[in-house]
Predict the structure.
Amino acid sequence: METVLTTDVGPVRVLATRCAPGVELAEAIEGAMAEDAVRAVVLNCFPDGSPPPPEAAPRVVRAIVDGPRPVVAAVEGLVAGAGLGIVIACDRVVAASGAWFRTSSAGDPVIVWALPRRVRKKLLLPADVLGRDAADIGLVDRVVGPGEALAAAIDDAGRLAAGPPSAMAAIKAMLNRGPADVSSAPRCRRCRPR
């Protein structure tokens, strides 16, 4: 049975999962990242409530983080465990107000450093964070009404897809390198001290 349904909406590739996505999801993301016609990816996160198998999550996270295209997550239901690690890896997260994030397991700890400190502290103790509260702590970027997360994520991805692909890839690479590499970032001549 196919576990990843792929649909194109203009320059945006929408990956909707059915059943528990695993290697197929990683392959779908890797394939989308390699196609020039695809300018952004939307991941409809586990609409049936099935999280990815934990052994597949690192490859999915790597495909998201290392890929040059922005990835927007759409979340309507529960996200926990390996699924939370995948959502954290996405460049933008759109959640329905009734979605919830279970922080009993943060998935890939390498991704956690990118979160605001107050979110990282929440991940240390088991907790449920509702979508409407997740934006307040920086876990999600946008909260919408129930049933609207996928459409809003496609809208956000469309706006990202309108940007120059090489600039998007460069920005994404710099953001994903981590704080240790900030000193090696190119500097503006006007910004250098004299």
